[in-house]
Amino acid sequence: MQFMLLFSRQGKLRLQKWYVPLSDKEKKKITRELVQTVLARKPKMCSFLEWRDLKVVYKRYASLYFCCAIENQDNELITLEIIHRYVELLDKYFGSVCELDIIFNFEKAYFILDEFLLGGEAQDTSKKNVLKAIEQADLLQENRPRQFFFLSAQLTTEKPL
Amino acid sequence: MSDVVEKTLSALPSLLSLDSQAGAGKLSPSSKLGNLIKGITELTSKHEEERLIKKELESIKEQVASPNTTMRQMKEIMVRAIYCEMLGYQASFSYIHAIKLAQQGSVLEKRVGYLAVSLFLNETDEFLLLLVNTVLKDLQSTNLIEVCMALTVVSQMFPKDMIPAILPVVEEKLTHPKEIIRRKAVLALYKFYLIAPNQVQHIHSKFRKALCDKDPGVMTASLHIYLQLIKENPESYKDLTGSMVTILRQVVGGKLPLDFNYHSVPAPWLQIQLLRILAYLGKEDQGTSEMMYDVLEESLRRAEMNHNITYAILFECVKTIYTVHPKSQLLEKAAECIGNFVLSPKINLKYLGLKALTYVVQQDANLALPHQMTIIECLDHSDVIIKRETLELLFRITNAQNVTVIVEKMLEFLRLTYNVWFIQTMNSVFSLGGDVMQPDIPNNFLRLLAEGVDNVEDRQLRLFAVDSYVSLLQGETAKLPQRFLQVISWVLGEYSYLREEESDPGSVMRLLARLLDQRHTSTETRSWVLGAMTKLCSSPVYSGSLNTVLRQKAQELMILSQDTKLRARVLPAEDSSLSFLDGYVSEALAAGAAPYKSPHQRQEDLVQEKALSLEPYGLSLPVSLSSCSITDRRSPTLLSMSSGLSGNSTELSHQEGSTTLKLEGVKRVWGKDGYLAQQQSAGETPTPLVELPSPLLSPQSPPSQTQKPSSGLEPDQEKRQLASSLFVGLGSHNSVCLVRFPSTVWLFIKHCQSANQSNVVKALFKPLPLLLPVPLTVSTGDYGKMWLSFSHDLKQNLQLVTTEHQEPLTATLDALKGKLHLHVVDIIGSEGIVACRLLQGPGQGQPCLLHCRVHADSLAVWLRSPVPELPDSLLYHCQKALTET
C-alpha cells in the first residue's frame, strides 16, 4: 500500500498515512485531487479507481471516506477488507466509533493503524491481537476517551452507502 | 504477552503516577485540542481558519521554546501541531521538538513523539539522523512497548545510510521470545530490503528461519520478503514450492488458530500472499506448476461463501491458475469462476470480472464469447471506470475483423471522458504530425468537434479548443504546421463566440490578422484564416494580394463588413427555406412561370402523364415498376431512358403488366408464415398486393416491405449487432491475430504522450470510420421501389478502375464493394446498381442507393437516399476509395 487517507464528505482530511516518501507539496496535491475525484463519484459506482499510475480503493462509511492507494498487482478486494478491518478495529476500540471520535482522538486512530499495518503491509489481521497490543500500550492510566457527543453517525452500524 | 507488559510497567512507577495525576491524554472538547477543533468547525471562511491556525501555531511555537514546558505538556502540544499540519499548515518549527519528545519522553510521550516524527518527516530528512541513537536505545530497551515503537518507526521510515547502525539489533530481534517483536522485526527487515537490498543480503538464511517460525503471524510477515525475492528471481526459490503448497493446504484446510480467521475465512491475507508467490514460481515451469494444481483446485473449491473476502481469494486464484503452466481442467473451472464475477450484480465484482477476463483473454480470446452481452452493457455503463476496463478488454481481443468498431468505441470514449486531454493530445498530434498527416485527420477532428447535440459537454469541448488555440496563437506560431493553422482558423471562426463573455472579440481577430501577416503562412491557410475572419465579421482589408482566391475572399469580406444589410442577407442564421428568393419567385409566378416542383414531384408527374423523360439518362421509372416485387428480375436499369430505349415506357409497362399475376380481387390465403386462416376470412377484403397500372407508390408509403431501415431496430437488437461486430473473428480461430494498430490507440488513451508520435498518429486516424456503410441486400425490384421513394439525389462522374481481367464497370464496383462494403444488386450491360445503408452516424440505418453507368471514360454515378447528407458523404468515400485503388 502506498498511502491511506481518511476524509469527510466535505472533503476535510481526517487522517493521512504515507508509506512512500513524497514531498509535502506532492502529498498535498495528491490529497486534493484524490479527494475531489472520490467525492465526485456516485454511490452506485464501483469502489476502484485507476488514478494516475495507481489503483485507488475507497469505501464510504457514514460520513467518512476511507481511501487507499495500492500497487498495480495488488488485490482490490482484499484492500477493501483491510479498510473494513480497520473500521472494525476503530469500532471496537472506541465502542461504536463515529467521525467525532476520530477527529478528537486522531492520534489513537494512528496508533491503531500502525498496529494493524506496518510499512504498508497488513502485519496482524487478528482483531484480538491488534487491540491487545494497543490497549497494553495505552497503559492503565489512560482513561479511555468516552463519547462526549451524541453518537450521531456511527460508522459500522450504518451501512456504507 | 500482557503479563510481561504489566511487569515492565510496574517497573516504571514514576510514569504511572505522573500520568494518573491529571488524567493526561484524556482528550475532551474542553482540552486545548478540543477547543481548537471546535473553534475551527465554528468558522465559516477559509480566511478565518487561516487566522485562527496562525494564532494557534504562534502559541505552540512559544510553548515549545519555553524551558518550563514539561514533556507531558509537550505531548499535548505535539498533537495540536499534528492537527495543524493535517489541515495543511506547516509547523516545521515543531519537528525538532517531536524528535526531542521521542528521545526524552516517557513511554506514552515517546509514542506521540514517534508518531509526530513519522508524520512530519521524510526518509530523506536530515532530522532523522538525530533519531538514530534514540531508536537504537529503544530497540535495546527491556520495555517491550519501547521496542515495538522503535520497530514501528523503523519500518515506516529510516535513513538508508544508517541501516547498518541498527541492523544487528534488529536481526537479534528475529529470535526474540515474543512473537510480536519477531513479527515487527521481520517487517522492518522487509522494509530494509525494499530500500537497500544489498544491505540485508547476508541474512537470507534468517529469513528462512522466519518462514519456519512456529507463529503463523511471523511466518506471514516473512512471506512479504519472499514475495519480493521470488518476484525478482523465481529460479533461486523453486525449492520453496513444496513448502508454500503445504502451507497453503494447511491454511485452506483450516489448520490455523481461529484468531486468524476473518469473517470465518481462514487467513485470507496469507492465502492471497501464497497464491501470488505460487504464480511467480509456476510461471512457465510445468514441473513446478504440477506440484500446485491440487491445492489450487482446493482453494477454488473451498472459497464458496458469498462474501467479498472469498471473492478476493477466488480472483487471486484465477489469476494464478492462468499464470502457471496451464491445466485444461483447472482452466475450465477458473473460467466458470470468472463468469460468477462478470454476472454478479455487484459492481465491484463485475469490475474485477472484466479485469480477470482481460487477463485471461490473452491466452484464449474465446473466453470472452460467453459474456458478449454483458460486455456490451458494460460498454455503455455510467461508471467511467467500468467503461474503461471494458475497452481494455476489447483491446485485448482486437483482430483484423473487428478493429474498426473497437477503435471507434475507443475514440468515442476519449471524446466523452477526456475533453481536455483530447484537445491537448490533438494539439500535439497536429503540431508534431504536421503536414505529413493525411488530410482527413483534420477533417475528422473538425467533424468530431462540430458534430453532436449542442449540450453543455460539447460546448465545453469547443470552448476548451478555442481557449487552447488562442493561447497557442499568442505564442510562437511560425513553427505550427499549415494544417494545424487551418484547423485553428476554422475552430476560431466557428466557436469564438463561446468565449466572448470573458474577453473582447477583437483579440481573436487580431491573432488571426497576425497569421495573415506572417510570411510562412501559405495561401491556402490564408484563405482559411480569412474564412474565419469573415465569420467573425470584422474588417481587416487584405485585398491587395496577388492570389485570386485570397483576393476574392478579402473582397467579399470587405464588402460584407461595410454593408451590414447585405451581410445579414448573405450570412444569416441558416435559412434553408431560401426565403430571400421569395420576391423573385412571386414576380416570376406573376409573369406566368410554372410553380416550383421538387425533383421527386416532377418525377411523379412525369410518370403520371407518361410523358417523355427529358433527363439525359437516368432512372425515371415508369409506375409499373412498383409491381417489381412480383416480377422479380426486372432491373430498373433496364428501363432507364438511355440510348434507344427512350420513350418506350408505356410499352415496357405493358410488358410488365403481362408478366404479372393479376391479384386484384383474389383472396389472399397464403401468407409469409403459411396459411392465413381465420383472420383473413373474418376480415375485410384483402387489399391487392399491387395496383396496376396506377396510382403511384406514394412518397409516404414505406420504401419496401422486406427491407426496414435499422433505425427501427430494437435496442437489444442493436446491441446484438454491436456484439457481432465486436466479437467477429473470435471463435473461428484458436489464436487471435492481434493487430498492432489498436494498441497504439490504447497507448494513446492510457498515456498522453508517446515517443513515435507521427507514426502513431497515422495509425490512429487512418481508418476512423465516421461513415460506416454496411451492405444492404435488396432485390432489384425492391431497389426500384426504394429508388422512387427517395428524394435526395446527387450526380457525379467518378473515375473508372481499369484492370486486365475485368470490365471497367465490374472492376470499379468490385473495388467499391471491397472498400466500402456496398452491395452490388445487379449489373446489366454498362449499368450497375448498388445499395448500402449506414450503420452509424447521422442518418443511422438509412439506405443509400447508387446507380452507375459507364459514360465515355468515366462512371456516371447517381446517388439517392432519404437523408440529405448521405449521398454527399458516400460519394466522398467512393471518390476516396477509387483514388486509393
Describe the protein's architecture and organization.
Chain A: This is AP complex subunit sigma. Chain A: It is a peripheral membrane protein. Chain A: One of its GO terms (biological process) is intracellular protein transport. Chain A: Its main location: membrane. The complex is a heterodimer of chains A (161) and B (885). Chain A is an alpha+beta fold. Helix content of chain A is 40%, strand content 22%. Chain A has helices at 24-39, 76-94, 99-104, 106-116, 127-138, and strands at residues 3-8, 13-18, 48-51, 54-61, 64-70, 117-118, 121-122. In chain A, the strands form two sheets. Chain A has a five-stranded antiparallel β-sheet, sandwiched between helices. The longest helix of chain A has 19 residues, at 76-94. The model of chain A is unreliable at 140-161 (pLDDT under 50). With 885 residues, chain B is mainly alpha-helical. In chain B, the strands form three sheets. In chain B, strands 5, 6, 7, 8, 9 and 10 form a six-stranded antiparallel β-sheet that branches. Classes of the chains: A alpha+beta (161), B mainly alpha (885). The interface between A and B is large, with 55 and 74 residues.
